[in-house]
Amino acid sequence: MNLYLRLAWRNVWRHRRRTLIIMLAISLGMLLMMLYDGIVAGFEQAIYGNAVQVLGGNIQIHADGYREKTGQSPLIPLVNDQELVDAAELQPEVVAAMRRIKTSGMATSAEGAFGVSIVGIEPRFC
Fold this sequence. Notes:
Elements: H1 2-14, H2 16-54, H3 66-69, H4 81-89, E1 100-109, E2 112-121
Antiparallel strand pairs: 1-2
């Protein structure tokens, strides 16, 4: 075994240029793979963060039967919605809470018609 290791080591350094080219190629490949992995992880975090911001936050509270009736009447009001907002704002982990309404619709233009998601919020002015 020791003989094979000595022969391999001698063969690697006998052709220095070939060895350096191979080492540079492997290093460049590893660098590009790490860069690509970092970019993909950043895109993934950005997508999740934007989805949370656009779709109303991490937690959503709906009226009983909301999911079953959304196809027929998506605007089902909660009985005491302001109390829920006030209770949520009392929690130390909550950054912001507000009432909102979400429905879908159709937007048309010269190019055609497109389905859209419509989200209305009630902002508070200080």
